[in-house]
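Most newcomers find our protein records easier to grasp once they have seen one. There is nothing in a record beyond a sequence line and a structure line. Getting from the letters to the tokens is the skill we practise here. An example says more than a description, so a record of this kind follows:
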Amino acid sequence: MSFNMDNKAMKLLRSLLEKKLQELDKQLENSGTEFNTDDFKILLGKHALAEELIHEVQRVAP
């Protein structure tokens, strides 16, 4: 894979991850209206994973 293709793939992956993180942020805000401990823990785990992946992509991307 060429550098140009790698860069495009990283940009796409980064934008998808950022979009997912925004969706998770909205879900997290809405979870306060109906508090369910298990759902909240799952949502926090997904949120943490999305943030970790975005930081990893940012570290690797030029």
Remarks:
- Residues 3-30 form the longest helix (28 residues).
- The CA atoms of residues 32 and 59 lie 32 Å apart.
- The mean pLDDT is 76.
- The two ends are 16 Å apart (CA to CA).
